Amino acid sequence: MTALLHAELLKLRTTRTFAALVVTALSLSLLVVILTATLDNGFTEGDVRLLFGGDFTGLFILLLGAIGITGEWRHRTIASSVLAAPERVRLLAAKTLAYAAAGVVLSLVVTAAIMLVGTLILSGRGEATLGVAELADVMWRSLAVAALLGALGVGVGGLVRNQTAAVTGLLVALFALEPALAILLPEVGRFGPLSGAPSGIIGGDLPQDELLVPGLAVAVSIAWASAAFAAAAASLRGRDLV
């Protein structure tokens, strides 16, 4: 299992897609923080927490997880991967862990960068900032969301297999279906896998009674990622690789 994980991490590090997404996530997150911290006024601690926790890491690692595994079929490398690791579920587990770890690393880099830049700008303008304990609290929440969404992306991609369908489905669910559900049935929408439960972990801008408490939100996100993994594993076991 260790060798498989190392192989997946190496494959991930050496792809141009991962490098491009790292640069894009960092650039967009910094741009939003710089503009918001520079142009807005009257920040409260809650505003700063939302600003520092609202990076693009979760979105990009979710899509990267789906792209990474569906690319095995798109580029017809899945057969050689299974030949190298005949136990298909172990291969899927290694991919899941690799993208969860990538989510942690990406989130750590992006969140640390926006915290540093945002704190410098806000303190220079005399606005509210966060102490070390509050920054650490925001950090662990961001890392948890990125890891869980990375794992979820792999599960969804492994189940769907078609790259375009997987990415499009995730985007539609994230930006259309879950927001609509949150408006129509907020008591159900807060359990959603892409924005509902992650918002509970981060502590979103919805009323507190429409968010899950962080501990439950983490448990719900783990349950979604586990369900996606189980479905993808069941499909992969009997799936024709060509």
Key words describing this protein structure:
242 residues; mainly alpha; 11 helices
How many separate helices? 11
Unreliable residue stretches = none
Level of helix content?
A: over 70%
Provide the residue-averaged pLDDT.
Answer: 87
Topology as a string of helices (H) and strands (E): HHHHHHHHHHH
Spatial separation of the terminal alpha carbons: 25 Å
> How many whole angstroms does the radius of gyration measure?
19 Å
Main sheet, how many strands, which sense, barrel? none
Derived from helix and strand composition plus strand pairing, the structural class reads: mainly alpha
Beta percentage is under 5%
SS elements, strand count? 0
Outline = globular
Assembly state (oligomeric): single chain
Which helices and strands appear, and what pairs or packs with what?
Blueprint: H1 2-13, H2 16-39, H3 45-53, H4 57-74, H5 78-84, H6 88-124, H7 132-160, H8 163-184, H9 186-189, H10 196-202, H11 214-238
3D architecture notes:
With 242 residues, the chain is mostly helical. Helices cover 80% and strands 0% of the residues.
Report a brief summary of the structure:
With 242 residues, the protein is mainly α. It has helices spanning 2-13, 16-39, 45-53, 57-74, 78-84, 88-124, 132-160, 163-184, 186-189, 196-202, 214-238.
